[in-house]
Write a sequence for this structure.
């Protein structure tokens, strides 16, 4: 704070809180910490509702009791809902002060998920803007950085990172989706027997292999890879934090989708144009199939795939629990199935259950109620065990689904609110 006294007073709904300036600087609530960066009263009034210079008092016309519970979170690290207060109203207070739903205790997160799934929430423009800022980098760092960067760089960044932020971003996203679809079609078609026959004939007649840039399919593939590479390089150049850019999952997927092509081209240059030698190389075939990662690039442009990825990242504990629920019964039922079907019947044992690892396959398809029918018990005890295996699979697999569902709803709402903000920006651009 470059003006006022050394003690700051926060007046929230009539309740006053006094803090030293150095505490305000590193305050856990982003809205409060922004006060330390303000250089004039005009900037202060953009953060709070009113300001008294003589007493260095900042006024916030917000729910005082809700802020009291938020201060308990600042002090003790635990955030819970205010009794007799609507969960959605308290969530709006959290967003105003710079908190997310992940700061809530797990039981309160479930209550919020249930409430959000039953209601459609309309956030004000300011609240949605704050929520979007919280999803990115630290708010204070972001404000300082935006002052230093030029407007065209920020516009370029939003064009490549937010497909719905502007008309240009939508056009760019549409072109990228077209290239992804074309590359996937070419990859799928290249595995057809007729296509392979045509490639062999092309090699015999013209002397170049289908992976060569002289071949039509090679040209299409090179154009697609060129677009993906250029897009990735531009996004890397305009990114704020280069290290954070490399660590993002979608950027890692982009790298996995692009790198195999350049490796295969390098190996082609080293091994020459001998098509038969290249076809015999298992490494090249693996690299070619790794281009299937291109389809995951669609997650950058579709809300549903983003929701799925965010849900899986937040529910890794539940996924591990689900895997544990499968592995433990699988070990028990596979051992019992091998004993009942093969170990006890010495005259005509069921060869499908000759070992416990072989019986594990039957347990997996039974617990998941897939039932391919490629192996099945023939004894009465084995069939009884099979029934128990199916029933236990239904029960055990259903246990963690509720937690995953609530997390999915929460992730969907968060991404939907961010998309709504970008849509409003797009509408304003059309009006201008």
């Amino acid at each position: 704070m470059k003006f006022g006294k050394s003690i700051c007073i926060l007046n929230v709904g009539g309740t006053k809180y006094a803090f030293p300036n150095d505490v305000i600087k590193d305050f856990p609530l982003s809205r409060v910490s922004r006060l330390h960066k303000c250089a004039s009263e005009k900037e202060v009034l953009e953060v709070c509702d009113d300001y008294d210079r003589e007493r260095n008092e900042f006024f916030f016309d917000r729910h005082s009791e809700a802020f009291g519970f938020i201060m308990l979170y600042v002090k003790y690290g635990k955030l819970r809902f205010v009794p007799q207060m609507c969960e959605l109203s308290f969530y709006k207070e959290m967003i105003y002060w710079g908190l997310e739903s992940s700061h809530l205790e797990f039981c309160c997160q479930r209550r919020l998920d249930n409430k959000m799934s039953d209601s459609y929430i309309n956030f004000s423009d300011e609240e949605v803007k704050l929520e979007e800022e919280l999803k990115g980098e630290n708010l204070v760092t972001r404000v300082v950085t935006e002052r230093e960067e030029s407007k065209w760089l920020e516009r370029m960044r939003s064009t490549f990172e937010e497909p719905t932020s502007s008309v240009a971003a939508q056009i760019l996203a549409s072109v990228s989706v077209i290239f992804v679809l074309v590359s996937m079609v070419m990859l799928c078609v290249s595995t057809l027997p007729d296509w392979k026959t045509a490639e062999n004939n092309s090699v015999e007649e013209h002397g170049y292999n289908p992976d060569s840039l002289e071949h039509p399919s090679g040209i299409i593939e090179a154009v697609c890879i060129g677009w993906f590479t250029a897009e990735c390089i531009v996004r890397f150049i305009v990114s704020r934090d280069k290290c954070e850019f490399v660590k993002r999952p979608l950027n890692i997927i982009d790298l996995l989708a692009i790198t195999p092509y350049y490796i295969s081209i390098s190996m082609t240059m080293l091994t020459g144009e001998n098509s038969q030698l290249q076809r015999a190389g298992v490494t090249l075939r693996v690299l070619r199939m790794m281009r299937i990662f291109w389809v995951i690039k669609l997650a950058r442009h579709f809300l549903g795939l983003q929701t799925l990825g965010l849900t899986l990242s937040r529910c890794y504990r539940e996924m591990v629990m689900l895997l544990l629920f499968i592995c433990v019964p699988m070990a028990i039922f596979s051992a019992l199935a091998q004993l009942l079907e093969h170990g006890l019947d010495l005259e005509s044992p069921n060869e499908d259950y000759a070992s416990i690892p072989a019986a594990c396959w039957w347990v997996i398809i039974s617990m998941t109620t897939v039932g391919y029918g490629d192996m099945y018990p023939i004894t009465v005890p084995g069939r009884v065990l099979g029934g128990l295996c199916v029933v236990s699979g239904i029960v055990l697999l259903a246990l963690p689904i509720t937690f995953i569902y609530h997390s999915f709803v929460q992730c969907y709402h968060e991404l939907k609110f961010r998309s709504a903000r970008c849509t409003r920006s797009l509408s304003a651009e059309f009006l201008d």
User: Anything to note?
Assistant: The longest strand covers residues 7-12. Confidence is low (pLDDT under 50) at residues 120-128, 143-147, 275-280, 424-432.
